[in-house]
Amino acid sequence: MRLLRQIIALLLFLIPPATGFAGEGEYQVKAAMLYNFAKFVEWPADSFGGDSRITFCLVGNSPLNGPMQSMQGKQVKGRTVSIRQITSPDDVVTCQVLFIPQSEQLRLPAYLQQAKNYSILTVSDMERFAASGGMIGFYEEGNQLRFEISLETAQKRHLQISSHLLKLARSVR
Fold it and tell me: CA angle, 154 as apex, 151 and 160 as ends, to 5°?
């Protein structure tokens, strides 16, 4: 029943708003979806290094920084959400979820290369992110925010993505 509620909550974020996705509202929706994605992913036990937190790292000056702060201290699978802003690929070592905004396109290869060494859920709103080596990529379809998933990349990093989340994705590569 709890899982069903989570799925319904995630679906509500996919319903198009009356005014589209321009501006701050877009990032509030992305922040909520990012938080909910973590509820549908299983990390290897050693990914947390004995820490009771799940760390969401946001690269640079992402517009997601503000909206994600409201997630600070919430719980995901019994772990307390911690939000960190990072500025270097070397900083990903402490992340379980890594959001790379469009503004970091030039440094994307460096972030993905570093994240390759860890079980980190990588998410972005860059075009074709999942096809470029990331795991979950946001995209707009009409006035709806959607996402695609690279299951192959997630499996290579020893992450298990729930079939419930996979069913909501546009394409599973």
Answer: 90
Which residues lie below 8 Å from residue 60, measured CB to CB, with a gap of 6+?
85, 86, 87, 101, 103, 104
Q: Which residue has the tokens 């990588």?
A: 122
CA 133/CA 122 separation, integer angstroms: 9
What are the structural domains of the chain?
2-168 (3.40.50)
The span from the CA of 111 to the CA of 163, in Å, is 27
Residue 12: strand, helix, or coil: helix
Decide: 156 and 134 in contact? Cβ < 8 Å.
no
pLDDT per residue rounded down to tens, the chain (173 residues) = 455 445 444 444 444 443 344 456 889 999 999 999 999 999 998 888 888 899 999 999 888 999 999 999 999 999 999 999 999 999 999 999 999 999 999 999 999 999 999 999 999 999 999 999 999 999 998 888 999 999 999 999 999 999 999 999 987 66
Taking the CA atoms of 115, 155, 138 and 56 in sequence, report the sign of the dihedral they define.
negative
